[in-house]
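PROTEIN DESIGN WORKSHEET
SECTION A - STRUCTURE
LENGTH: 190
TOKENS:
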């Protein structure tokens, strides 16, 4: 962190409870999945969100259950402790800007999460979602599948409604990207 002129390390603490005493409050917390106090990631992430900060998970472990808990709680993603310093700083910058940090560990854990309710997308809706969430514009998706842009917009509206009904809202393109990752429609290396 010392080499990063654009990032400020406010503190290094051992528990999430210690964050409440910080002034200024952090905008991003790089959070280990396993804290010495035995707390669960979901409780820690909820406490960090209550402070108005986002969370990037930082872990050396491969406990899929804890990664799934963090994903369901709204963490922006995961970076491994084995990542080189430049990769770590890039992940922190992305998360600090509100972006998601996806990798194979994150995607694999989410893909295996049976607790995520199924949105019951049709095969065509899955196709539209995978194309749209991968970054194509509605016009490009329309060309790729041979329909009008308006039809793609209808599909996207229907997809959003189905995710909302499943309790997994997708208000933005980033949310749609997350849902596509969660449902295995994207591989997470994009």
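SECTION B - SEQUENCE
RESIDUE ASSIGNMENT:
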């Amino acid at each position: 962190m010392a080499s990063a002129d654009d990032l400020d390390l406010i503190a290094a603490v051992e528990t999430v409870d210690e964050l409440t005493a910080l002034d200024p409050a952090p905008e991003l917390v790089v959070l280990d999945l396993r804290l010495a106090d035995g707390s669960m990631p979901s409780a820690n992430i909820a406490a960090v969100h209550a402070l108005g900060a986002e969370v990037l998970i930082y872990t050396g472990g491969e406990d899929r259950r804890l990664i799934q808990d963090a994903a369901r709680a709204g963490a922006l993603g995961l970076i491994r402790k084995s990542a080189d310093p430049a990769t770590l700083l890039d992940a922190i910058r992305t998360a600090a800007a509100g972006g998601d940090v996806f990798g194979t560990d994150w995607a694999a854990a989410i893909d295996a999460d049976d607790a995520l309710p199924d949105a019951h997308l049709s095969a065509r809706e899955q196709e539209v979602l995978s194309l749209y969430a991968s970054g194509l514009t509605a016009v490009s998706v329309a060309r790729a599948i041979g329909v009008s842009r308006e039809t793609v917009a209808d599909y996207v509206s229907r997809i959003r409604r189905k995710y909302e009904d499943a309790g997994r809202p997708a208000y933005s393109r980033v949310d749609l990207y997350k849902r596509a990752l969660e449902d295995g429609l994207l591989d997470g290396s994009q």
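SECTION C - NOTES
The longest helix spans residues 149-165.
The beta strands are 28-32, 54-59, 78-80.
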